[in-house]
Amino acid sequence: MFRWHSYLHLHLNKNLKELYLFDVLRFFSLSTVGLFIPLYLIYDLGYGFLTTIVFYLIYFLTFALFSFLGGKLVLKYGATIPILINSLFFIVGYFLLYLLKDYPIPLYLIAFIFGAGSPLFWVSYHSLLSKLTVKRYRGESISVDYVLRGLVALLGPLFGAFIIATYGFQVLFLLVCVLLLFSLIPL
Fold first, then answer.
1. Which one-letter DSSP state was computed for residue 41?
2. What is the DSSP letter of 9?
């Protein structure tokens, strides 16, 4: 017989709840803008399709190169410091995207900043998740995280589209920076 109470009662400690809250706030802020960056680069700023592809190519290559450094930072400083550094990288990146309309900032520098900051989060987050979850219930804990991310992934782009349609891309970039700052509070 299937019992719901075993799925409703998760073995959460306070730190794991704070990690979930951080992840939901972070993922919501990034999902509000992530879908619209190529549109911003192509339609709002007038960059070509090829330039946008090169932007993402630099982002992913930098991500791959800095993954090793992310692991080293987690070993040396623990998992929360690289997550904080990652958030600062992303705040700087979105702020530079905000300034890109008025100032000639190299687009590839922004891609490099995003790519250098991303592995700091992923390596740290997974090490924190493995440390904070109970081994026996790790699958349930990760499933809860994925469900929460899925819900936010549905709401984030709708909220982002509303902000863009009402106020424009630059307000969205500032809002994402503020949301990323607020996501650090649970940590």
1. I
2. S
